[in-house]
Amino acid sequence: MSADPVGAFVPGPSVRVEGKAGGPLSGLTFAAKDLFDVAGEVTGGGNPDWARANPVPSKHAWAVQTLLDAGATLIGKTVTDEVSLGILGESAFDGTPLNTRAPDRVPGGSSSGSAAAVAAGLCDTALGTDTGGSVRVPASFCGLYGIRPTHGRLPLDGMLPQAPTSDTTGWFARDAATFAKVSAAMLGEEIPAALPTRLIVAVDAFGFADPEVAAALQPMVERLKGLVGAARDEVMAPPGLSTWGRAQRTLQPAEAWSTFKDWVLRDNPRMAFGVARGLVMGSMVQEAEQGWANLMRTEVRARLRYLLPPDTILCMPTTPFPAVPKGLPVPVQTPLRDRILCLCAHGGLAGFPQVSIPGAELDGLPIGLSILGGRGSDATLIAVAEAMERAA
Amino acid sequence: MSADPVGAFVPGPSVRVEGKAGGPLSGLTFAAKDLFDVAGEVTGGGNPDWARANPVPSKHAWAVQTLLDAGATLIGKTVTDEVSLGILGESAFDGTPLNTRAPDRVPGGSSSGSAAAVAAGLCDTALGTDTGGSVRVPASFCGLYGIRPTHGRLPLDGMLPQAPTSDTTGWFARDAATFAKVSAAMLGEEIPAALPTRLIVAVDAFGFADPEVAAALQPMVERLKGLVGAARDEVMAPPGLSTWGRAQRTLQPAEAWSTFKDWVLRDNPRMAFGVARGLVMGSMVQEAEQGWANLMRTEVRARLRYLLPPDTILCMPTTPFPAVPKGLPVPVQTPLRDRILCLCAHGGLAGFPQVSIPGAELDGLPIGLSILGGRGSDATLIAVAEAMERAA
After folding, report:
1. Which is the most buried residue in A156, A212, B79, B161, by most CB within 10 A?
2. Do B111 and B183 sit in the same domain of this protein?
3. What three-state secondary structure class fits B219?
4. Quick one: B96 and B147 in the same domain?
């Protein structure tokens, strides 16, 4: 990587791996969140003591290898919230990458550096991870295209896990054409020409967002209706988005604890207090609560299967509000973070693919419109994103 | 400070403040744990984000000023477990000061650097703090004299607090004469010539230590009997040292949480995972548990008042075993730390003065014998320590 005016890349020697010649992504550059292995490079995971416990990888992560094979050139590893535990993108160790679209605001996390690098034009695309919103939120906050693919569809080899039943590999782009090219390579599937024919407007999700956000997204919703055709209003989460949020925030921290407990108990790593507290809370989740949350996960999946038969997509605000100011006091930040996570919970619970589309603003701050489809409909969502840009 | 071959001093520019000429401690040097304010110097508190939240002090801490006024020269600030939360002296940020008497073992904490500096001969005495054992434990592990004074006797101005109802300022020395001189200055009281006349041997405390430790301390107990006279065996803690330990480990973490919560919630500081976990656990102590622990504190005070009328002292092992190896895995470390804290709990619960006297060894590792007296009997305990050295 070259200059890094936005603090998007991890400190240390620069990393560069040329893509294979003649691939479909030739000429494109990409960055990888520092949760992805790059052969011969430390995987830092956003924590100063992670690398100590984990050998330098000898192999690229699947996602890195896939982009290199398709011809894109890796130009750096990007800042992440510690071991992906964070949604705002303010790292106690590596700082807060600059959100070029909203310089006094957070970039969103945990794929903060990847989003910041793409938004600043430092690379064409960047790999992130999305367990509870870590691609979708920074995409919305930084005004980018971003995808959380169908859970379980893409191999996660060489990606630092958090909560495996929710973990996915996603990516960002500034424009729909690049987003489509990268997505075709990552998904191993052509982006179809045909668009879905039915649109569901998730009225509870729009109601959960700030009214000004719902209003700012309305022109995009109208454009989507024009492209897709038959639209109807539906409640997405009959028990409430907060109940879905509660289920995800039961399962994910408990699973994160089980992922990280051997490490934190053995190595006593340095961590931001809030990150450590989240893990400790995860260690205390009761079995009965987990049992309930797993039943709710079954219901969430059933609900989304019911809402999203073939040729149907659903739209909703990606986040309830645009990027929040940097450095908010914890008592102010906590309820905001809780609301963000409620709008993201279905991702980890159901594993359906979701794409955040930029194009709306509130007081100059970007805000994304998300579209969801049935499992495996990732390429169709990309096609809709392209059509949305063409129709803008 | 000059060379620091043992990693006892905090990194950064060296600190030196000359003592007043002609004082009783003229010619002596001392170091201060980095919880004590030194005018114009950062008080780091062992945590990389503490100083950011706290202004550089314009005034010396009471304890520092007292030693300077008595003529001792300050030569540095020493490594401490983070904000005094730790008993082994292994800091994730500043490393583990070398225990010169047991180089592959921990120095004990949280006054780790102060003990290590004195043990290595880098200074004559050093200030520590003792809330739950932070002077007594490193004194035992490093083979030093160490005192936890009567709680509430010495002003704690300019000392970073942890749990104010248990916090004290203590100090270390290698030999009894220096220990007595420093103690007279700190206590503002001559060390008396007369010794107590009754000795209690705390049979439950000796039973709580490893049998080899109890045996290794036996010659010192015999010497003490020879000096003090009438000795009798007593159970120190009728409900069990583990029950006293439980009470202290209810009150102290809850109080530490109340001391630090504004800071950690506002600043999200970097912390070792285990330190953060301790604070989180402190935040969860139930009111009913605190109520019980406060009642137990009343009982502990009553028991020690009963056992320690004037002219009576009690002896016990300072720690249940010598310094443990460095870098033990947490599951191995936890029960060892728990046992150490049970033997120290009476300090914070009752606030009676205690002096740890070196002179015994187990397999070449130092182990201290502690003597306790009634409230205010600090100087008498120092006199006993001197007599013990003379009689050795």
Report:
1. B79
2. yes
3. helix
4. yes
